[in-house]
Amino acid sequence: MPKPPDARTAAAGTLTPPEAVFARVRSQTAFEETVDQLGTAIKLGLLPPGSQLPPERDLCARLGIARSTLRQALTALSQSGHVFATRGRHGGTFIADPQPPAHPPSPEMLARWREVCDRRLAIELGVTVLAAERADSADLDALDDVALTLEDALEDFAAYRQADIRLHVGLAEATRSDVLVREMTDVQGAMTDLISHIAHPPEILASSNAQHRRVLAAVREHDTIVASREMTEHLKGTEHVLAGLLPGG
Amino acid sequence: MPKPPDARTAAAGTLTPPEAVFARVRSQTAFEETVDQLGTAIKLGLLPPGSQLPPERDLCARLGIARSTLRQALTALSQSGHVFATRGRHGGTFIADPQPPAHPPSPEMLARWREVCDRRLAIELGVTVLAAERADSADLDALDDVALTLEDALEDFAAYRQADIRLHVGLAEATRSDVLVREMTDVQGAMTDLISHIAHPPEILASSNAQHRRVLAAVREHDTIVASREMTEHLKGTEHVLAGLLPGG
DNA sequence: AGCGAAGGACGGAAGACCAAACCTTTTGCG
DNA sequence: CGCAAAAGGTTTGGTCTTCCGTCCTTCGCT
User: Fold this and answer.
1) Is the pLDDT of residue B150 over 90?
2) Alpha-carbon distances, residue B50 vs A7, A10, B214 (angstroms)
3) N or C, which terminus of chain A has less Cβ within 10 Å?
4) DSSP state, B52?
5) Which residues of chain A lie closer than 8 angstroms to B86, CB-CB?
6) What is the pLDDT of residues B178-193, one digit of tens each?
7) Which contiguous run of DSSP H or E holds residue A84?
8) For residues A164, A165, A171 and A174, what is the CA-based torsion angle, rounded to 10 degrees?
9) pTM, whole model, 2 decimals?
10) CA distances from B227 to A42, A214, B45 (A)
11) B218-229: per-residue pLDDT in tens?
12) Tell me: the pLDDT tens digits for A73-126?
């Protein structure tokens, strides 16, 4: 028969439990999560315009949800213009042309921009280190290609951001770690929400590109130290830009 | 009138969408997430034995769920012996004495051990870098205390692991980033599941402690480079142990 | 013409979650 | 002593989400 408050309460020290322990348990519905997952993939260009989604009957199985739930999500995405469907024999659901970003920065997102950047730092740094250990030259060649695309996109931020995402997600893929790819797409989605509405002068993008090149070079040499130093510097760059423009900077 | 498959499908290059895009949408119920969140905090010792949870009526508000849902979770935790409740004026819900780990390694967890380690690397590395930038000397003093506790726990792995977790979570708290604390507790919970059932000779723990000391010293000097190098080495240590014992190593 | 593969629509069953009461136990205090 | 307060425990009813199965519609291909 246990007696409630015993001496150990004090004996355990004054350590107060991290408030994360009692933090809000996030309980998004399957519908919402699906809209987020597919919507982010579209926003990030991971699902390029014109490409076709798997048939609903297959896709709902892969996502682990019922078809009706998937259809709710697809209906939402089609109403917001991200997707459209055609019927008939060779019909299907297709990715629409990119939407004008629309999203005004979302006030409660802006309040948490520092947290987003912190999370990004962790993911990108981990990815960089693991990529430097595991990427093979085929991976690196593909990434170099993307880097070349970036060089030609200094004047068009939408195109630049697109390729930038390809580069960062590609680096995550080179780690062969599905969780890291997932976290990278997540965090890039959040970053896009933050930065797509601020000015990006070509000089800044050019210097970003130089950092990209240095990161890739270091990764190719399996030099984790240099790779992570360069990546850190790269990330601090955009962080400084944000700090200058957003509250609490 | 949109026409479905157009030339861009091919023009966009051979990039096949990362399979993470169509990955299972994880839809845990609020009940399950609550059990996980509180259960992990208990397992990790973040809620020490004998300590008291907030009253149900408060706690459910903080967690953002209904009281009936919270009670489901508490009932589950009490049936598994992690928690017990007393009624009456000064009653409450209290953390029970630590359970014998019980958990047999869980076969599908073992299969994903590499992913867990990868995620841990990312979080720990990010935390280390940010802690090295942001920790003040009060943070460091507290962490040094924990490190001292670790020195005396070489023979009792349960106690050792407990303090180890305090150290790593404490480092995360020093970043002042709630998301990182949350991710750290998450990942430490997963690690505990992996490592609590394997042998930990005192020599290994002693060398871990040496690494802890070097990490803390570097953090105190705001030396992010050295701190992350030492942390990486520390993490690789347990990773090698796992690689020797688990499938796919 | 018709088959087959795709999206589209409905209707009910099951379950998760919530909200708001109400009950029971204990204890401090007037 | 007895009551009020503070806690956990119980019940009920309703809403919303999700699932499953079935059927319909469209339309290119053979």
Assistant:
1) yes
2) 8, 9, 34
3) N
4) B
5) 2, 4
6) 999 999 999 999 999 9
7) strand A83-86
8) -140
9) 0.91
10) 38, 22, 26
11) 999 999 999 999
12) 999 999 999 999 999 989 999 999 987 776 777 788 888 999 999 999 999 999
d(CA A232, CA A229): 5
C-alpha B237/C-alpha B195 separation (Å) is 12
* Cβ <8 Å between B121 and A115: no
Model pLDDT for residues B90-141, shown as the tens digit of each residue: 999 999 999 777 677 778 888 899 999 999 999 999 999 999 999 999 999 9
What is the CA A81 to C1' C1 distance in angstroms?
37
A vs B: CB pairs below 8 A: 218
The helix, strand and coil proportions of chain B, stated in percent and rounded to the nearest 5, come to: 65, 5, 30
Cα–Cα dist B78/B84, whole Å: 5
Vertex A48 angle, CA A88 and B1, to 5°: 45
> Which residues, 6+ apart, have CB-to-CB distance to A244 below 8 Å?
none
Q: For residues A167 and A150, give the distance between their C-alpha atoms in angstroms, rounded to a whole number.
A: 9
* Helices and strands counted in chain A (H then E): 11, 2
Buried b vs exposed e over A96-108: b needs ≥16 C-beta within 10 Å? beeeeeeeebeee
Length in residues, chain A: 249
The string of pLDDT tens digits covering residues B83-92 is: 999 999 999 9
List bases, strand D, within 7 Å of protein CB: 4-13, 17-22, 25-29
User: What backbone torsions phi and psi does residue B124 show, to the nearest 5 degrees?
Assistant: -65, -40
Q: What's the pLDDT score for residue B68? A: 98
d(CA B215, CA B209) in angstroms, rounded, equals 10
Task: In whole angstroms, give the CA distance from residue A132 to residue A188.
Answer: 20
Residue B33: which H helix or E strand, with range? helix B30-43
